[in-house]
Amino acid sequence: MWRKRIFPILIVILLVLTTYLLVAKKQTPVPTATPVPTVVSAPTEPLAAIAEPTAVPEFPLTVTDGTGRDVEIKAAAQRVISLSPSNTEILFAVGAGDATVANTDYCDYPEKAATLPKVGGFSADSISIETIVSLKPDLVLADAGGQTSLIEVLEKANIPVIALKAGSFDDVYANIEMVGKVTGHKEEATKLVESMKARVAAVQEKIKDVAESDRPTVFWEVWDEPLMTAGPNTFISQMITQGGGVNLFADAAEDYPSVSSEEVIKRNPDFIMGPDSMGEKLTTDQLASQPGWDKVNAVVNNHIVLLDGNMSSRPGPRIVDMVETIAKALYPEFFAK
Amino acid sequence: MNSRKFLLWLLILSIALIITLIISLGVGAVFIPPDRVFAVLVNPNQSGLDSSDIAIVRDLRLARVLLVTLVGAGLAAAGAAFQALFRNPLADPYIIGASSGASLGATLAIAFGLTWKFAGFRPIPLAAFLGALSAVFLVYIIAGGNSKATVISLLLAGAAVSTVLSSMVSLLMLTKSESTHEIFAWLMGSFSGRSWPQLWSSGPYLVLGILMLWLVSRPLDALSCGEDTARTIGLSISKARGVIIAAASLVTAAAVASSGVIGFVGLVAPHIARLLFGASHHRLIPASAIIGGLLTLLADDLARTLMAPYELPVGLITSLVGGSFFLYLIRARQRSLRGKS
Amino acid sequence: MTTFAIDQISCAYYQLPVLSHISFEVHAGEILALIGPNGVGKTTLLRTMARLMRPVEGKVILMDRDLWETSLRDTAKSLAFATQAGSDTWDATVEKIVALGRAPHRGWFMPLTERDRHIVKKAVEQVGLKDLHERISSELSGGEQQRMNLARVLAQEPSVLLLDEPTAHLDMKYQTEILHLIHKLAHRDGLTVVISLHDLNLAAIYADRVVLLNDGGIDAIGTPVEVMTSQRLTSVYGVPILVTRHPSRDIPFILPDIQLMEEADNE
Description:
CATH class of chain B: Mainly Alpha
CATH superfamily of chain B: ABC transporter involved in vitamin B12 uptake, BtuC
Oligomer: heterotrimer
Helix content of chain C: 25-40%
Strand content of chain B: under 5%
Distance between the termini of chain C: 56 Å
Strand order of the largest sheet of chain C: 6-7-8-3-9-10
């Protein structure tokens, strides 16, 4: 009789012990918190007439983030956590890479970013709030697309959150400026944006004589099953148009619509492009082997181009690289060196 | 087992629960040793306390582990009650449609971005709560209502309704593909991100439901002997059944509203409790509740730490561990049956 | 006062008529045995009398009140029914199951009193399960489970006791002991007992009156001597039955008439 009772009790005790052991082994040591330097904001000068111009204090300032929230930033952020690869690239590009204390698993560019501690993946439920809190950040850069659920939790923990929206090129420029402002790298940010705009302008200059109707059509394959492309309001589509192409589905209503093969074949794109993550599926041979595709312009002329998957999917500083690459592919005659 | 021994063992289990609670407050993506956990709980205003410790233990974890415990306790109590009502050791809290109703509710809320809030419930939990209750109500009506429902008709109606509702969920997942990931995550059961709001909204129903089920211990005992016997000792079957289903469904609805569908706890905890304490419901209900809370706590601890900083869905862990334990129970039963002539 | 009576009862089993317009009365301290061929409706009649099944017609009267106008709980305080031994028992201890018999008096929420516990203990002893009172009921033999059911019924302290084949799985020892106990409860303690038996000799020994059921109605009702005649039993059961006199008592002794059957075979 007692044996029947003991066994389940043993199991329960075993479970508790095993759990504790398992759990104790898995612990990441609490990161030693670097003391947060107290930033003394510049004293406000009396507004009476002053002999020499004094620098207008930058902080505290208020910015409006991608979700329309007004966020108050008391001082230049020194401990930033980035929750998306594009935010990470922006941070490093404006010179705030040193101020970044953690990012996500997908943040691999630049190289230094890949070595930083990680707080999770990309989707909101894969981000560990606890890890974020334990790192004592003074700013978190989130993604306004899918991470809005984290904003409330972080605010409750008294951590300022700025969510960046990634829609158009203008959005990206604005984001870069905003990140520059809040991290105390305003000038570098402005310079970066200016250089980006200049590069795009240079590309436009080269192809300005090509009429709209003569520009090559581009089908951008986001995914193959189901066959998916990018609609006109995505920055992918803007990369294409800035690079001198015409989005095959510029008339699409959704941002990432599923389209049928027949429709693509009917519209007969001059170029087919996609991220290199599509790999073997987006080669001339592969496409030519599919019924109906072998007569498509792009296939016939071998105008299938694979582009860096990361660069083409992150609304950050490297979108301009993409514009240049696309332009070179579309108009080799203008860009041959 | 006499009263004194029972109380002693119950005390031991309760202490185990409290210890596990303290441990649970310390584990996760960030490890906080028990002494610091104590400090935060007992004297949060003392100097020298790490602010992130306070934030993590008090703001992020405390409400969560309490919710986890209550959910596990509630599911276990409901499972024990249904095992008595249906005289079936395989019965669990979802047997008459609560989980499929909750799933459909949550799926609709996610897919169509519903935003109603009520009684402290956010949109998705509210939809799940109402969905669960509606499904059980539907099953009850289909089975014949108060006067004509029998155990068999309830089980059949439950199976039928569950199938239909589940296929509607699948259909929605297919057609609203942008919501599929979120729906799937919810269905697998998780306490990720749950905190004080969820505790205050679901908590009262969980506590109320468990107490109600404990209160009807003797009717559960009577029903376990069969409907004829129960009637001959004066139990109104339809009334008792109504109360039991109402209380158990309230608990189950509140549980799935807060954390999605967590399986196996409601099935396995009562069996463990029965092995330890016998089948008298006056003891079985509280024992199941404590064991259910304990198991779910452990499962959630594992969910939070196995792949930190990622959180696994706790429903996955309970299915894996619960399923294995269930296999063990089946083998044990087979062995004992073979032993009998 | 009418202790227990049925008045023009007709009952059906899932719409199939079983018994029609049955009436009889049972007095306090009396043992009334229901006998008759298999399937004649003994169980159906008992279940109707126990308020488990509603009669198609007629009334059941308990203590001068219509049974169906009394609540289940009030009924349970005076009337107890021991069903035929079922297959699926609840896996609680014998003591726990017997204690359920106190529910009609104690209610569904109040804890058991010292007196309740004493009654339960006495009931367990009366059926000879004292040594097994801590055992899980699913581990008991069929006969032990039957005795446990009886103990539960006794713990109800009823004034009317209905028993469906209470000796079905019991060996000679327990058969005798149980029926002896029931006999004492009726004659010494004044319980009203209605019991269905398939063993005609047991009915003859222990019943004060018997009701012979056949063909949807009462074939005869009266003392065992009056009812159990050779001719009547042969006609009801359809096989030659010999009724002679019990060796030591003035009660009938019933046997199959082997001689007649052999003679019939040889023809």
